From TrEMBL:
Keywords: Hydrolase, Membrane, Transmembrane, Transmembrane helix. This is Alpha-N-acetylglucosaminidase. Pfam families: NAGLU (PF05089), NAGLU_C (PF12972), NAGLU_N (PF12971). The chain crosses the membrane at residues 12-31. Residues 480-761 form the Alpha-N-acetylglucosaminidase C-terminal domain. InterPro entries: Hex-like_dom2 (IPR029018), NAGLU (IPR007781), NAGLU_C (IPR024732), NAGLU_N (IPR024240), NAGLU_tim-barrel (IPR024733). It comes from Somion occarium. Residues 39-119 form the Alpha-N-acetylglucosaminidase N-terminal domain.
Amino acid sequence: MQTHPELDALSPIMNILGVVFFAVFACIQSIDALDFRGLHSLVQRRLPQHAKDFTFEALPEKGDKYIVGDTVGKRGAVTISCTSISACSRGLYVYLTDFGGVDIWWTGSRLHELPSNLPPVGKPVTGDAVVEIRYHFNTVTFGYTTAFWTFEKWSLLLDWLALRGVNLPLAWIGYEHILSEVFHDTGLSDTEIASFLAGPNFLPWNRFGNIQGSWGGNLPTQWVEDQFVLGKQIIQRMVELGMTPVLPSFTGFVPRALATHYPNASIVTGGQWSGFESNLTDVSFLEPFDPLFAELQKSFILKQQAAYGNVSHVYTLDQYNENDPFSGDISYLRNVSSNTFSSLRAADPEAVWLMQGWLFFSSSTFWTNDRVEAYLGGVEGNDTMIVLDLYSEAQPQWNRTNSYFGKQWVWCELHDYGGNMGMEGNLEELTNGPITALQAPGSSMKGVGLTMEGQEGNEIVYDILLDQAWSSTPLKVSDYVAQWVSRRYPVQPLPAAAQKSWQILSTTVYNNKDPNSQATIKSILELSPALTGLVNRTGHHPTLIPYTTNTTILPALKLLLQASDVSSTLRNVPEYRYDIVDITRQLLANSFVDLYRHLITVYNNSTSSHEHIMSTGSNLVRLLGDLDRLLYTNENFLLSTWIADARQWAGNGPRANTSYAAYLEYNARNQLTLWGPNGEINDYATKQWAGLVGEYYSQRWKLFVDYLAGIKQSGQPYDATYISRQLLAIGQTWQVQKWRGTKGQSWGTKGDTFDVVEEVLRAWA
Ligand SMILES: *[C@@H]1O[C@H](CO)[C@@H](O)[C@H](O)[C@H]1NC(C)=O
Ligand SMILES: *[C@@H]1O[C@H](CO)[C@@H](O)[C@H](O)[C@H]1NC(C)=O
Ligand SMILES: *[C@@H]1O[C@H](CO)[C@@H](O)[C@H](O)[C@H]1NC(C)=O
Ligand SMILES: *[C@@H]1O[C@H](CO)[C@@H](O)[C@H](O)[C@H]1NC(C)=O
Ligand SMILES: *[C@@H]1O[C@H](CO)[C@@H](O)[C@H](O)[C@H]1NC(C)=O
Ligand SMILES: *[C@@H]1O[C@H](CO)[C@@H](O)[C@H](O)[C@H]1NC(C)=O
Ligand SMILES: *[C@@H]1O[C@H](CO)[C@@H](O)[C@H](O)[C@H]1NC(C)=O
Ligand SMILES: *[C@@H]1O[C@H](CO)[C@@H](O)[C@H](O)[C@H]1NC(C)=O
Ligand SMILES: *[C@@H]1O[C@H](CO)[C@@H](O)[C@H](O)[C@H]1NC(C)=O
Ligand SMILES: *[C@@H]1O[C@H](CO)[C@@H](O)[C@H](O)[C@H]1NC(C)=O
Ligand SMILES: *[C@@H]1O[C@H](CO)[C@@H](O)[C@H](O)[C@H]1NC(C)=O
């Protein structure tokens, strides 16, 4: 084991002085071999009973390699040797999963369930990463999933990442503190800066230059300061766990008032985004060839280094995400990227520029190959950039851009829009795709990564890609799934029905070859009701269900339930309970589509009466009530968690700041529903959460059914404008509603999952 007694003595001081810690840490990493203290802390955190049983040792080679074996001369102990912290972490994961039969999930860590007598390894097991980079996060995950998290939730996810071998996570938290300081130095006032920053869970789009300002009130300074404290903790933990955080930089997006302070600065408008009114979008962009750009970049990066230490040279920087450049001239694009990169290098001589490649897909008409080549080509060298090929599993762009003209790029899985929850995946593509891309002639692919917009469910499709990073041949999906299931439900012996259930899912729902319905399937129950246009949507927000529910979801659910009839201890496994709720949720969501179709057929029929529509429509509302009851039985499906997480930043109990809490709650609710003050991106980040389904979606559908029945009676024509205004008004009211106390709903779970599932099957299957 590597120890550094001289540093251990310092550690209390280092915990206080994060800056000192990082300076020393970085130094140790380079002159000495590897500092394993972060991994020992992870073991202590997750497997305290085995704190002394794991030894880590450095191997002198390069790359990411590990060897896992029994500790010589010590029974029930394991030694992991490696060439990097990340490889040792991965080696530990291989031991815990393959030998220990336990795992760490988004739903919680079960690593402490490792047998008390550690299973022996026998012949040592080795592994190598087949790619240098294992990346995690989309800029918008910080809005859709982690926006309101405290360090406790972060700690679980960071351990999840480290153990799976991620070594390059994005780290946006705390950005606004440093950015505001940079702006202050230019003479901008607090008010001018505040009018630029977006709401807490909308900051990603402010960082992208899509929006500015916060509806419902300015972003409080307290938020900015609290996030800065959190950001330091997160970055410190990432570094300890052998990950290189990808840090923010100065992008060029500035408060409008900068033009007043610098009348000669080259400032252009980023463009109108997603129907927002001008004062919330049309963000000012300081052009990178203006000397002020380089000045602000240097100021930003030096302040950031002072805050976090010299922990990374990789910078995230997106200028044209869903915003086309001011000019499409080849020379302009080359000029912009060339000057942007020079500004980074002037501030950090080893800077590497990382960018999300979404624009090359979403604005592919603008981004012709010669424009892509000019923009990337403005940056000299190939190791100077990392492009995230953001949606490789369905809409790869590397293959039309000559492997990004030689720049390093990462094969990324997008999969999820807005944290939507429909079950979907293409396991075959997630195993074959990256290997094919790696082996393509002239490939400059350097990594794989997860760039989901939100993390909600479907955990298997994320696991498999990070595991594929350690296998030079495509993983065999059926074997993979079997092993995954047996550690997800660590019950001995695991009833065969559980495996059969997942065999069905993995060969159908998770074997989606339809290019038009890739990414989580959105359920129409979450959409604003309408006569047409809801079902069978394809493309960006598919509602087309690319499998037959009766032969997939339904038998899979029945088999999974059967498994716990055989082995009742399964019902105590949190991931089993989660999956039962999730699959039942999907069954109900899909059944809703049939009910909706029936309703419209009845409505379209001129002989149908008011009563017929009411009775047909009542089924839709009844189903939503049952879905809400189901979701209420599990802590992972609660709207109240999202809201409580938001409100906690305003303090808890009698010391809470109620106006701040209300602001946070409004932002939290707004994103799920209207996404913008007036429904600009209505129903994008929908969720099937208890409270949201029962209070909001079901209210909208009830209004719709009543309306259809009403006009049948009155003989008035269907008025699409009228009904959508009424539905929007429900949204506007729901935004500002206080959760606590309304309709007697509690904040926690209620009801028993298995009772509700039984009723659901009786009523709807
Ligand atoms: C509550 O929070 C708001 C927004 O941060 C702030 O303006 C106000 O001063 C706070 N009130 C108290 C009593 O701290
Ligand atoms: C801006 O440019 C004008 C014309 O070139 C010049 O007269 C003026 O001094 C400049 N202002 C600043 C603040 O640099
Ligand atoms: C934006 O402008 C509109 C009027 O065009 C105004 O009603 C609204 O309050 C403004 N919003 C913000 C955030 O300033
Ligand atoms: C940061 O670390 C690099 C080596 O990784 C070194 O070249 C550089 O001088 C350091 N910068 C500072 C500000 O310490
Ligand atoms: C970029 O454009 C600016 C403004 O037109 C010009 O002054 C500058 O020389 C150009 N720089 C490069 C590297 O082409
Ligand atoms: C790139 O690959 C995707 C997915 O296989 C395919 O649909 C697309 O046509 C390919 N593009 C080119 C230019 O080959
Ligand atoms: C970058 O990659 C391209 C394409 O493989 C190659 O033509 C070019 O020479 C490389 N540039 C450098 C500086 O290595
Ligand atoms: C949607 O697709 C399903 C199956 O492909 C088909 O049966 C149904 O008629 C379609 N519905 C509409 C409204 O297009
Ligand atoms: C699915 O099964 C149910 C009950 O067995 C049946 O009512 C329904 O028509 C089936 N749906 C399809 C699309 O086959
Ligand atoms: C109902 O009528 C509308 C409008 O005429 C039509 O577009 C739609 O396809 C019909 N739907 C069904 C399910 O009959
Ligand atoms: C309309 O409803 C009537 C009564 O239920 C039924 O007999 C008829 O077949 C329906 N017409 C159509 C076109 O579905």
